[in-house]
Design goal:
The chain has a three-stranded antiparallel β-sheet. A three-stranded antiparallel β-sheet has the order 6-8-7. Helix 2 crosses helix 5 and helix 6 crosses helix 10. The longest helix has 27 residues. It is an alpha+beta fold. The protein folds into two domains: 99 residues, no CATH class; 106 residues, Arc Repressor Mutant, subunit A. It is globular. The protein starts with a helix and ends with a helix. InterPro entries: MksE. Pfam families: MksE.
Length: 212
């Protein structure tokens, strides 16, 4: 598999020679319409697509087939999304794909999604620190967090106020929001843990606050 730098290079078709762009045009014709439509639907739902997903029945990580397909045809997908006013992005640290939008209305919506996601993650990280646990445990499937942690968040007046400000009915809904967008996984036993994308976002938010 190619390294992450190649992903970042191929996510910027404007810097490529014409021959490479023509190759991407040709690859677009080879894209499977059903798979492409499914990937697009996930992106438009505000989801990220991580390299590893979680199989609840087998209780183990599995490689996401849509991620693999994006990885294989990254040049074609980069050009395809550019043609419809979007930009395919790849985060090498967290090994996940997402899209940016160029339209002002969509940018505003994306900013709201980012704010809600970052706020939830920041509160989770803060709660874990205050309870004497290592933040890294949040992203371990064997540890993570559970319903008791979510209930504890809901008992805090401060956290309840933040939850309402983020337009969630309760902290259970906030966690489901993370799961639905691919920033966390739920297991079959009321147990959750952050995906690679969730962990990457959490690290970035913590670093940003430390630099204030």
């Amino acid at each position: 598999m190619t390294d992450s730098n190649q992903h970042n290079d191929s996510a910027n078709a404007t810097n490529k020679p014409a021959s490479h762009v023509n190759t991407a045009h040709g690859a677009m014709d080879e894209l499977n319409h059903n798979i492409s439509a499914r990937i697009y639907q996930r992106f438009t739902q505000g989801r990220v697509i991580t390299k590893l997903s979680y199989n609840k029945l087998k209780s183990q990580h599995v490689e996401d087939k849509d991620y693999t397909y994006l990885f294989r045809y990254v040049d074609a997908f980069t050009l395809l999304y550019k043609l419809i006013g979007k930009e395919l992005e790849y985060n090498a640290k967290g090994e996940f794909f997402y899209i940016n939008n160029f339209a002002d209305s969509e940018i505003d919506e994306a900013d709201e999604h980012a704010l809600r996601t970052q706020s939830i993650l920041l509160i989770l990280g803060r709660y874990f620190e205050m309870s004497g646990r290592n933040i890294d445990s949040l992203s371990l499937d064997s540890l993570g967090f559970n319903n008791k942690d979510i209930e504890a968040l809901g008992e805090s007046d401060e956290y309840k106020s933040i939850c309402r400000a983020l337009k969630f009915a309760n902290w259970q809904k906030a966690i489901e929001y993370l799961v639905n967008r691919g920033f966390a996984f739920d297991t079959s036993s009321n147990h959750y843990f952050l995906s690679s994308a969730g962990k990457t976002f959490l690290d970035a938010v913590i670093q940003a606050h430390e630099n204030l």
